[in-house]
Amino acid sequence: MDVIADQKTKLGEAAAAFVSSPRKMLIDGDWVEAASGKTFATIDPATNREIVQVAEGDAADVDKAARAARRAFEEGEWPRMRPCARERLLLRLADLIEANAEELAELEALDQGKPVMFARHADVAMAIDFVRYMAGWATKIEGSTIDVSMPMVPDAEFHAYTTREPVGVVGQIIPWNFPLLMAVWKLAPALAAGCTVILKPAEQTPLTALRLGELVMEAGFPKGVVNIVPGYGHTAGAAIVDHPEVDKIAFTGSTEVGKIIGANAMKTMKRVSLELGGKSPAIVMADADLDMAVQGAAQAIMFNTGQVCTAGSRLFVERKIFDKVTEGVAEVIKAMQLGPGLDPATQLGPVVSKEQQARIGGYLQAGFEAGAKALCGGKVIEGEGCFVEPTIFVDVKPDMQVVREEIFGPVVVAQPIDDVNDIAAMANDTIYGLAASVWSNDLRFVHRLVPRLKAGTVWVNCHNLVDPALPFGGYKQSGIGREMGAAVFHEYTETKSVCMMV
Ligand code: ADP
Ligand code: MG
């Protein structure tokens, strides 16, 4: 690949201004340096050059943030504010994200590497919709009245009901694949429910969360309700999980780290929701619209350079169309234009970091060593930037590492289906259970297969489509709990039973 110009020169005025000076963290309504004075560099994965220095939070900063969030929860107006006032603030935040959409899209493309077109039309656009959808829930959280029998006091009368109360101070730890969108997925329902928050963006991609923090303050949220502490996982992240003033942890990231966080959170019995890894199947049947299925299967894995927890990373295709579909997918992905996110011609950006690039390189090598064959791609691209060739492996066996483990990069493994009765077993042959897609027009077949797939989301004739109204989460080792929809409010509220003898 040619030498890539410093991507900062391609930013618009607003984004350029944002990265022109070191960024601080948001604690109790103020932008402050780390207590240690330390900073870390956030890197442009298209060039491996430093973008800007960011305050590096650790346990001391998390402690300040947790106390601020606790004060805001116990003494501040936020949980007691009229629900419609919380709704209005969230709507104002959505308007501000919309008003600053281009700046946010550019910052995301620079910090994360994704094509700016996707940042604009996927990440930022969805973030706006998502906040608006969640704003509406502020006024719609309900308990129920329950007719109790109370056998111990059969002659008494009762009025019994439940209320749903905000769970309290929430620690939210998010990954680097959709930095702004993940921040909003986490913040919006917690805020609608009346919780206060400490959010830690991923160390690879802190910028849009910090810009979002500025918009939160501009919208007029009370101080201490939203605190944003950038830093590393083993320091700042671990301190959030351990902090006694934090009532709940919401985490999105790898299954490996999710298990550590879940186990550590139990020491103080925090509520936990975990949205973790996947190795999601895309199943293409011979009766499907094949052009659509080929495009769909290619996008299912290549969207966001494969850095999507629901990526369709295992492709299953009926034997009689196997060559046609896999060669079709290879054609589509070979034609994808690799480049920096801020180049408008780019269709596939770099992966997020040198570490990820090396990790994916290791998987590619393991695939070849185990006997897999690449129909296209197969290499990491040496030189500046974290680029990886989009790759489709065939001749794979179910026990190969590339088939079993989440690669989180632009690599798909394809396997033929010989007997339709084996499909569910093949699809479910994984520790994960986040999502699946089925490409078919045979209604009876689809309706028989869907209940047999162990996955939190099943798409039919589409893949990777999420909506704020649809619950999202994993079976098996893909996680615990559900985000979005009405379901997410189980994660952010406690149920209180009230029983009154009348
Ligand atoms: P990846 O391995 O793909 O980078 P991780 O699961 O490590 O993803 O990271 C997701 C988020 O979890 C990041 O914000 C990271 O800083 C954080 N994190 C990593 N390790 C820990 C940990 N031990 N405790 C708390 N948070 C962590
Ligand atoms: Mg970065």
Characterize this entry briefly.
The chain has 502 residues and is an alpha/beta fold. 37% of the residues lie in helices and 20% in strands.
Structure commentary:
This protein has 502 residues and is an alpha/beta fold. Helix content is 37%, strand content 20%. It contains 16 helices and 20 strands. The protein has helices at 13-18, 59-74, 83-99, 101-112, 116-137, 179-193, 207-219, 233-242, 255-266, 290-302, 322-334, 354-369, 401-404, 423-427, 443-449, 488-492; strands spanning 25-27, 30-32, 39-44, 49-55, 145-146, 158-166, 169-173, 196-200, 226-228, 248-252, 271-275, 280-284, 312-318, 373-376, 391-394, 411-417, 435-439, 457-460, 479-480, 493-501. It has a 7-stranded mixed beta sheet with strand order 14-15-16-13-12-17-18, sandwiched between helices. A 6-stranded mixed beta sheet has the order 9-8-7-10-11-19, with helices on both faces. Strands 5-6-20 form a 3-stranded antiparallel beta sheet. A hairpin with a 4-residue loop joins strand 3 and strand 4 (49-55). Helix 3 (83-99) packs antiparallel against helix 5, helix 4 packs across helix 5 (116-137) and helix 10 (290-302) crosses helix 11. The radius of gyration is 24 Å and the shape is globular. The chain starts with 12 loop residues before the first helix and ends with a strand. The mean pLDDT is 98.
